[in-house]
Amino acid sequence: MPSPTVKVNAETYAKLKEAVAETGEPMIVVLAKAVEAYRRRAFLDGVNADFTALRNDRRAWTEEQSERAAWDATLADDVQGD
Q1: Which residue from 6, 58, 57 is spatially nearest to 28, judged by alpha carbons?
Q2: Which of 75, 22, 59, 65 is nearest to 14 (CA)?
Q3: How many angstroms separate the CA atoms of 6 and 27, rounded?
Q4: Is residue 6, in this structure, part of any structural domain at all?
Q5: Residue-wise pLDDT tens digits, 14-64
Q6: What b-and-e string marks burial along 14-45, b requiring 16 or more CB atoms within 10 Å of the CB?
Q7: How many other β-carbons are positioned within 10 Å of the β-carbon of residue 5?
Q8: pTM (2 decimals)?
Q9: Exposed site from 2, 29, 34, 61, fewest CB < 10 Å?
């Protein structure tokens, strides 16, 4: 099965080669790790933006705080998990 080709600019390719030289890992591994790190960062940036929006909505943030307080009360109920 043929592998897809990905085009990158010269600067990106140089950085990729540098990372390969530093780690000793194959280029495909370095690239896969970079894409995964980017994907995770984008997810966390989205979560942070969502929480910022929530905090900026006073009513929604108050509801969130109330819900957290209700769940925190369960920490003191002495019920042991499995």
Answers
A1: 6
A2: 22
A3: 12
A4: no
A5: 999 999 999 999 999 999 999 999 999 999 999 999 999 999 999 999 999
A6: eeeeebbeeeeeeeeebbeeeeeeeeeeeeee
A7: 5
A8: 0.72
A9: 2
Residue 55 in contact with residue 61, Cβ under 8 Å? yes
What's the domain count of the chain? 1
Average pLDDT over residues 4-11: 94
- Answer whether residue 14 is part of any domain: no
Backbone angles phi, psi at 25, to 5 degrees: -85, 155
Q: What is the rounded CA–CA span in Å between residue 76 and residue 82?
A: 17
Give domain status of residue 47, yes or no. Answer: yes
Could you list the beta-strand ranges (E) of 1-82: none
**Residue indicated by tokens 């989205």:** 46
Domain assignment of residue 48, given as a range: 25-73
